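Table 4 source record.
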Amino acid sequence: MADRRRPAPTGPAGPGPRSDRPAPSPAPRAAAASAAAGCVLAGTVAVTVAVAAGPGPGLTGYVSEAGVTDSGYAPMYRIGVFALAGALLLLAAALPVALRVAAGLLAAGGVCAALSGAVTCSAGCPLPPFERATVADLVHGGASIAATASVVFAMLAVLFSPAAAALLRRLAAAGAAVSLPLAGAVGLAMLVVGRGALTGVLERVLLAVCAAWGLATATALALRRR
């Protein structure tokens, strides 16, 4: 008698084990992206108000000077920095699994930003090589620099990842094109000129670009539908 059993169905890639596990829902990542966008907005507003209204030296000093203990706006500044740190962590959680390198960089940036907000620098936020810095100044300054660098490198990781969506890559390309030369100029100004109007303006522009990229990327992820 002929064997009338039907052959196992095969797909385009050939036979294989069938999985009844449902695809992961994008809802948690969309919620994390929405929360990240809100934290970017809240943190940026708080830091901006603290810098603009505080007793700092205006454009001739570092942004971190708004968080000095003697400033009446120091609590607002630190709340803003913690909100931005949370935004980086939430944005890392909102990125697709394939962008794990960028997510890791953003998570590291969030931890460094939280450390920057927790450790307060002394008056003027002195940094070498032109000023004598305390241990707290070095920790605060190093954490702030590392947080910003992590965001810039995360842009590059998204840009060069073939798994990233086209919109995310375009946003990363725009952010990296502006932030990379700014980051180099800030580092050079800190080493050659030191604290002053040039360094202060370049630092503010760089931080604004990073915040804009984070907000745009978080909004794009929140609105994305599969």
